[in-house]
Amino acid sequence: MTLRLEGLGKEFVPGLPVLEGIDLTVEPGGFVCVVGASGSGKSTLLSLIAGLTRPTAGRVLLDGQEVTGPGPERGLVFQTASLYPWRTVAGNVAFGLEAMGMPRARRDARVAGLLDEVGLRHLAGALPGRLSGGQQQRVAIARALACSPRVLLLDEPFGALDVQTKEDMQVFVRQVWRDVGTTVIMVTHDVEEAVFLGRRVIVLSCDPGRVARDLAVDLPADRTLADKRSTAFLALRVEVEDLVRAEHRAHQARV
Amino acid sequence: MTPHPAATQAGETADQKPDPVTGPDPGPVTGPVTGPVGDTATGPVDGGATGLAPPRPGRRIRPLSGSVTARTAWTLRALSVLGPLAAWWALSASGAVNPAFLPSPAAVWDAGVRMAVSGDLWSDLAASLGRIGLGFLLAVLISVPLGFTMGALPWAQALLEPIVGLLRYLPASAFIPLLIIWLGIGEASKVALLVLGVVFFNTLMTADVVRRVPRRLLEVSATLGAGRPRVAARVVFPYALPGIIDAMRVNAAAAWNFVVVAELIAATSGLGYRITRAQRFLQTDRIFAILVVIGLIGLTIDVTLRLLRARVGRWSA
Ligand SMILES: Nc1ncnc2c1ncn2[C@@H]1O[C@H](COP(=O)(O)OP(=O)(O)OP(=O)(O)O)[C@@H](O)[C@H]1O
Ligand SMILES: [Mg+2]
């Protein structure tokens, strides 16, 4: 499974591109983090890949097939869990499987397996309103994973969580990625998170959003939280932070 | 016991100097709870720069979201009914008002019992309830799908909102003569009035509720492979249902009013009809008794729909 973005561009207002000339190829099983200033078009980029927004230039290709609308092979998770508040945790995870028409017995088995994976089996019958922010995000991720997406799109999934929960979730998402083997594209404004999780970090410039830099993260594939203190990690983190800051300054100078 | 802020507000504002704004911004009701304005109030605040005196320490700020205990609430509820009842009793017992105009509570009770024993009350009640049952059902069957469509599909909204919004402002009671010409004085015209009076409001309110379904929820559903019919049935409808019932509850009150109005004007049965009959013979005690019954039925409808709402919307509590 290869995801290709070809000359991708988006203008909400004609003449004012939010994104422009984005060319990107993501190898199967990759983990790409996208960072950039607020308003650089990170969410718009995910929305284009998800097929929720149509590009005004270029195209999104999944294994050579153009993306023309949303579909279960591209799962999406937002910053604040958009769970179905009237459905139980298990019911939320089952939603995509129901849409697929999977028979009840297989569905239940799959939901149970997913809840084990995200460590929420004991909360299968709870309503989302009862869950903590981190638990809600786990449900949202399990719900997206239920459809066996080939690409998992995460839009600042841990942005609303406290530091401790956030680190737990980072370890969790890494684990899921390794277990499931799906491609992950994650937007974040947290550079440390991007470097810790990504095998690649894309820095977006602002106004219009372009790929300002595409960095490979040369850190061991097996990372623990302790690696956040390694010299290589810190060097990379500083490099990305400087890039984001430079893009932000350049943008400010222009307006 | 400290009086509830809302209860004292109106009476006290006249002799109070307007306070500088000191309370926390309550923010949007549904937003995350942010608590008191800690970040701005702490630390050395330069009072001179703003021209405001530094906040007095120890000043107690009472948030408007304060609650009362269950016991206080029930006491106040009882007071809200028993107070006016006591005033009525005192007024009629004082002899200041002619009983032909204001009968005593006891006389009203007697009149009510007499109507109940003769059976008139029950047949009138049945007639009125039959009308609201049929009329309101029709109104809901029309307005909920219509409002749902308007709320869910922007083109339906553009097509229907202007006309429904306009029709809503035509007073349904003004249609009574026309309805009698068109449909006669039978059941049809009364049910039609009720439908007319309710259907437009309920349509617009339903559409509003449906439009409030978060866009993110719809987007996520699409990425989970749900097409539009499934999203409508499995996402929009369950999300909007508590709000739809709320709208129905508001409009049920209007429907009940319209039944009585229709019966006041042209009917040979029903609670409204019984009032006009009693008026002819100056039986104010009967009129009062019927008004009490009308009020109690209205309350029952309201409580029933409230319970339904609480049951359906448990997840949103
Ligand atoms: N539906 C829309 N209509 C018009 N303009 C939009 C729309 N969605 C986004 N924009 C604009 O596109 C730009 C990029 O928005 P986007 O949400 O993609 O930024 P972002 O990088 O995700 O920012 P943040 O870090 O704050 O989430 C913004 O200037 C925004 O105003
Ligand atoms: Mg964003």
Features:
heterodimer; A: about 260 residues; alpha/beta; Rossmann fold; 2 domains; six-stranded mixed sheet; four-stranded antiparallel sheet; 7 helices; 10 strands; globular; B: about 325 residues; mainly alpha; MetI-like fold; 13 helices; about 70% helix; about 0% strand; disordered N terminus; binds adenosine-5'-triphosphate; binds magnesium ion
Topology, element by element:
The complex is a heterodimer of chains A (255) and B (317).
Chain A: E1 3-13, E2 16-26, E3 31-36, H1 42-50, E4 57-62, E5 65-66, E6 74-77, H2 89-100, H3 104-117, H4 133-146, E7 151-155, H5 163-180, E8 183-187, H6 191-197, E9 200-204, E10 211-216, H7 231-254
Helix pairs in contact in A: 2-3, 2-4, 3-4, 6-7
Chain B: H1 5-12, H2 38-41, H3 47-50, H4 70-93, H5 105-118, H6 120-152, H7 154-167, H8 176-183, H9 187-211, H10 215-223, H11 228-265, H12 271-280, H13 284-312
Helix pairs in contact in B: 5-13, 6-7, 6-9, 6-11, 6-12, 7-9, 8-9, 9-11, 10-11, 11-12, 11-13, 12-13
The structure holds adenosine-5'-triphosphate and magnesium ion.
Adenosine-5'-triphosphate binds at residues 12, 18, 36, 38-44, 189 of chain A.
Organism (chain A): Sphaerisporangium album
Keywords (chain A): ATP-binding, Nucleotide-binding, Transport
Protein name (chain A): ABC transporter ATP-binding protein
Distance between the termini of chain A: 40 Å
Bound molecules: adenosine-5'-triphosphate, magnesium ion
Radius of gyration of chain B: 26 Å
Kindly identify the CATH topology of the largest domain in chain A.
Answer: Rossmann fold
Largest sheet of chain B: none
Quaternary organisation of the protein chains: heterodimer
Runs of chain A in which pLDDT lies below 50 for 5 or more consecutive residues are none
Chains forming the largest contact: A-B, 29 and 19 residues
Tally of contiguous helical segments of chain B: 13
Overall residue-averaged pLDDT value of chain A: 92
CATH superfamily membership of the largest domain in chain A, which one?
Answer: P-loop containing nucleotide triphosphate hydrolases
Instruction: Give the rounded overall mean pLDDT of chain B.
Output: 84
What is the gyration radius of chain A calculated from CA atoms?
Answer: 18 Å
Counting helices, strands and paired strands, the structural category of chain B is: mainly alpha
